[in-house]
Amino acid sequence: MDPAEAVIDRIEARVRRRLGEPSRHLGPTGQPKASAFVFRRGDAQGVPEPVVQALETRLGGRLPAVYRAFLRRLGRRPLELFRGSDLTDPERPEEYEEILAEMLALNPEFVWPPSAHVILTHQGYHLAYVLADGSHDGPVWSLTEGQPGCLADSFEAYLETEAGYIS
């Protein structure tokens, strides 16, 4: 099995196990929480390969293998991962370009890398991105209110952190 696919298999299995635990879906009265009805097995949906390839062509490089595997498997509907944030649609960069422009205006010294792909935005003040550098699993970078930073040393670590938030 491809190592990047194995990472996504493991994290998806972890998320599905957490979502499938009945005790996590019951409130203090023993009645199901409203969130129990959000997840249904099979709700995951990926991005078709031609869409991923078109994104890479636009960026001028290959996405990190682990992020690429995530896109293919969970990129449209990632179960409960990244709940509260807006995943970007690789076919609709205009959906995040306005937020990106606002962020860059806050920090004119920061130079946006041409190979950067915004993976998610959060309430208009934060975005996360990866670089199409052909790596196996590169870092996840951020712009928060115009300030750059590193969210995680790898997309795998970023997913592991996000999976830990699921209850």
TrEMBL record:
InterPro entries: Knr4/Smi1-like_dom, Knr4/Smi1-like_sf. Residues 46-161 form the Knr4/Smi1-like domain. It holds the Pfam family SMI1_KNR4. Gene3D superfamilies: SMI1/KNR4-like (3.40.1580.10). Signal peptide: none annotated. This is Knr4/Smi1-like domain-containing protein. It comes from Deinococcus humi.
